[in-house]
Amino acid sequence: MAHQQGMDSALFERRLRPVYDNLEVGNNRKALQESEKLLRKHPNLLCARALKGLSLLRLGRYEESHSCLQVVAEEKPVDDSTLQVLSFCYREMEQLHKIVELYQHAVKQNPGNEELLAHLFVSHVRVEDYKAQQAVALQLYKAQPKNAYYFWSVISVVFQGIRGPESAIPEKRKLYLALAQRMVDKHIKEGKLETEQEAFLYLHILKLQSKYQEAWEFLTGELCAKLYPGAPVSMKFELLKELGNWKELNELLQQLLEADRDRWDYYKEYLTSCFELLKKTSSEEGTENYTLTTCHDFLLHIIQSSERKTRGPYLARLELHQRMRAIQLPAHQLVGDFDQLIIEYFLLFGDKSCCTHDIALFLPSISMEQRQALAGRLLVESGISSTSLPQNKEHMQKHICALQISRMCGVHIELSVDHLLALYTALKLHYEHGYSSFGKQLLSTEMGPSDPYALLAANVMYDISMREQKSDQLFEALCLLQYVLRNSTSNFHVKLLSLKIYHMFGCMLGAQEMYDYLDIKQIQLDSMGYVHCNLLPLSGRFSGVRNCYDSTLKFFTNSYKERLEYIALTYRFCTFSKMEEFMNFKERLTNSLLYVACSVEAQLCDLVSCYGNVQQNLTSYVAMTIEPADDRIAWNELSDNRDLEAIIRWDPLHLVDAEAERKESYDQEIEVLQLRSLLLRLFASFIDLYHAPPSAKLALSNAKTITPAPAEDTATLELLRESWTGLHQRLRLMNYKPLSQRFLVNLQPTRLHLLLELPYERFFDDLAQLVLDLYTGATQLALQCKRVSENVASVMEICVQTITESNEWNGVDGLWKRRTHQQKVAACLEILSLYAFLLSVLNDKLQTSTKTKTKKKSSGDNKSQGTPHPISEKERSQMLQELMRQLKHKLEACDAALRIWKAPTLPRDLSSFMADMSLKPEVEATLIGDVSATFKESHELMVTELRNLLKDKIRIVGK
Hints:
Layout: H1 2-6, H2 9-24, H3 28-41, H4 46-58, H5 62-74, H6 80-92, H7 96-109, H8 114-126, H9 130-143, H10 147-162, H11 170-189, H12 196-208, H13 212-219, H14 222-227, H15 233-243, H16 246-259, H17 264-280, H18 287-305, H19 311-326, H20 331-334, H21 338-349, H22 355-360, H23 368-381, H24 393-408, H25 417-438, H26 451-468, H27 472-487, H28 492-504, H29 508-518, H30 524-527, H31 530-533, H32 546-572, H33 576-590, H34 593-609, H35 614-623, H36 658-690, H37 694-702, H38 710-713, H39 715-734, H40 752-757, H41 760-776, H42 781-809, H43 818-848, H44 850-863, H45 873-899, H46 910-917, H47 921-957
């Protein structure tokens, strides 16, 4: 240490530079060599030793890295370079508490050092220790009286009140927020408030205490005007609403709307203020008409005086009409006829793609008859009939808008199948005309202007398929969508619908191609990943889906470190207005349902796909660090981050309840996650009973007590087994219904019903008893072996029968039930693969450690002679060998069934499809052939993968 401090600083940096350079370019092996060469000359150079630890960490030599870093940390370094390298290592290892310890030691040796204290503060930020943050911030302020440090302590007090462990106690929350306010008040009195972020924080503290009057006075005062001139207008809206000062809010909004006439959010606030004023003054005679008349006159003034047409005031007029009708006021008399207002809006803005969803905002407020009459009038106003075609792009967009509203009003669901087929043909021809006339010279990033015709056509064909319970119409829609995708490569709506249809038909290859084509990145992996990742488990491609899980999980793990640094940066730059936003964002991603589900499914996939010898498989299992006794999932904090509005829909409004659908699917996904997580932990408890994880072995070697009794060893397994059966009983009592599949864009059914239908519960419950009986040598072991063998035979029969049924369906409709059949087969093989892995582990253990267990059991018999004599290790081993022999035969039977599993056949021949498609001849021949080839190739890949899986399991149990 003394040698290191005595070295010349420039020489020190120059000799370490090659190590830094190699680490920066990713040449970790060379960095390790350079650091070792330097340590041979200077063995006490702590920074070089820390860099060696970092090189080892990045080379995957974790144990060596840990011991190297431990040696450096025990020296309690104080130099910045060593501390930074150690911090970097601990961040990569996600051991953030060790960074706190590092800087605590450094600060003790060098108290009052501003830089070390700042690093210590940030290390507390990473572990969210708000109380420690406050203490360190005050230390910093005493050492260097800067405003930033003072407000670090203020925000730390605030977070103790709203996010800390005591935030749930109202009295404590009130106390912390009052303290934070007093701290800022003191600073204001001393004239030390300097920045807009400090002013924002003071306003935020006042609002958290519901002190809206004080907040308003500060916001409109001289000090705030000087420090925070750019305070968002929304802050004023919020305070005026809380104070009930509707008149001032109304006047403020009028001024803002005069300046910015297309702000829909301002118009909604303006109308709210008008109706609140109406409530206040309703007792005064004549006020009612005056308030709303003034509102209507203002909207007319905006419309008439605007140089260019803007949607805002027209939408506000429709909203005024809707709100007046909601409280039985004469809207027709003041604002005019509602249908006429809609038609006027359609004529003005129907050439914009947003027009459909603008009008849809107001449709729920009118009756079904009025909706359908309005839809008819809009179709007439669009100027397109069965004998005419659009003359320009704008004309075509109006027709598209009218058709979309017509579907939203429920016109399509009342049509017969023949009429729907005629509508599909018309839509297809309109798409072809629009593409040839207006879609040729577009940029590759632009969507074709006539693409919505094809999207509507796909929805119509899905409606027909659901009525007929056949796949041919939907397959034709898929081919049409693939044709559109060739012409409009950037249309993500087409990709999403194609992805959905491929999944419906169980075509994993096509679905994966569409998902890759979507090019989902970064945060979209969380918000949009559900369209694909939720449907991957039990798809029949256990190792194939692992890549998809890896890319998704990589985003979550990498971004976790980044999110922590973003929060640290908000402190460094005192950006208080963004702190809570970043914290909420971090929590939403950390507790994302998709992230947790992918983690569990990826581990189950790894266990199912293990193909090495027993020791290799156990090494892979240990690397997963599964803790059966510890449920790591924070069930009450899980977050549903799915963006369900990304998939565009024009389904009848009266039959769509998006929020109810979201809740229902989320509830079922949570139950599926509980089943899968519990299965993983239960299975891990089977393995841990015979092969204790390293942490358990370490605890056992350190303990001075005797070896735990069998009852203590099996406590976790028995508890998880009870939870397993209890969960299944609860789920059957809950009686969840499958998700509605009435429309194409509805969410796909969850796996909940499949998991309850198949014998998962009985199989793993009996398997748990078998593992316990083998462990204790119970006398009923032979009976339990017979029961498990019967379960294995039952699973094998389900697998073989499902494949037979799938082959029979090929003669009727090869695609309609395809996904269900594939899921059943995959589930059966998952059960058998896990069973094969377990048997190989048990067999290995019984063959290598018979003597110790026999001694343990015999010493127990001497104490209690009344208990039956346990079955000998040799007999247990023979029974296990018989179970493995039986499993091998069943796996071979499954393999034979897979060998004759036929690829899905199309419900009609290709020439019939090509005649119906009526596309360009040069396209027809390749398009439908390519789509059907994708289905065939997907099936072959799945069967090959499943057969390889079975061959691995047959080899494992055949040894």
